[in-house]
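Now for our specimen.

. . .
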Amino acid sequence: MTRVLVNKPQPLEARFAQERDRVQAAFGSRLRDFRVAKQLTLEMLAERADLHANYVGAVERGERNLSLYNIWRLAYGLEVTAADLMQELPARKGRR
């Protein structure tokens, strides 16, 4: 019987990694649009959301796969809902 390691992260298949990257980039772009519209710097938003400015910058560049909790924190910092940040994510491509 093969042993399964439960907490060891497994690499994504290429197609899933591309999809993840596309979603992260779209979220980051939307986050940046909200931040610029509110005339906030990265540092100001990071302070309001109680996150590090480097982390917020990485999210905006689509480099981070952030948690629901951090989405909620960023929404609070922007004075919008988490749903507002998630609203224009690309539709999932694939089988139905």
In short: The first helix runs from residue 14 to 37.
